[in-house]
Amino acid sequence: MNDHDYEEDQNQGEAEDIVSTARKIDDQQLRVSKIRDGTVIDHLTAGEALDVLAILGIDGSNGEGVSIGMNVVSDRLGTKDIVKVEDRELSQSEVDVLAVIAPEATINIIRDYTVIDKKRIERPTAVTGVLSCPNRNCITNANEPVNTRFMVLDEGLQCNYCGSIVHEDEVPTYLDVA
Ligand SMILES: [Zn+2]
């Protein structure tokens, strides 16, 4: 049995009569409720859901509608995490940094309960405006109107201004979110 993806879940209502009971029971993703409009970040490696919330700056204090599935059974990944954010689509900067830490993820854009766009993310060549530089003396930490920019290299992300490297496992630490 394949790991069916979010689109099938969203469309399950329409296909109700041809969907077998057996399959529905097997459908672990139903543990996480459907959303009407927003973004579903699926196929995250187990444990990455919290990093995704950090990237999106979500801590629950702004009243966002967010559903999180952690360690959901997935045939493709063993277990996976899934994050659903209502009434929000990701900026390119957010997608870029997500691509660095969660290259296996897929992004589904939902409108009116239907997946209207599905994208597998691609590793970017640069990430702008989402990470802070670990070098305190870097111009990007000097209250200057300078956006951070990191080049994505094999060894990590390199600050465009001072050359400091943020290794991929350190990315969540340097997320520059409000
Ligand atoms: Zn720097």
From TrEMBL:
GO cellular component: aspartate carbamoyltransferase complex
Keywords (A to Z) from UniProt: Metal-binding, Pyrimidine biosynthesis, Transferase, Zinc
InterPro entries, alphabetized: Asp_carbamoyltransf_reg_N, Asp_carbamoylTrfase_reg, Asp_carbamoyltrfase_reg_C, Asp_carbatrfase_reg_C_sf, Asp_carbatrfase_reg_N_sf
GO biological process: 'de novo' pyrimidine nucleobase biosynthetic process; pyrimidine nucleotide biosynthetic process
Cofactor binding, note field: Binds 1 zinc ion per subunit.
Record-linked SUPFAM superfamilies: Aspartate carbamoyltransferase, Regulatory-chain, C-terminal domain, Aspartate carbamoyltransferase, Regulatory-chain, N-terminal domain
Family: Belongs to the PyrI family.
Name of this chain's protein: Aspartate carbamoyltransferase regulatory chain
Species of provenance: Haloquadratum walsbyi J07HQW2
Gene assigned in the entry: pyrI
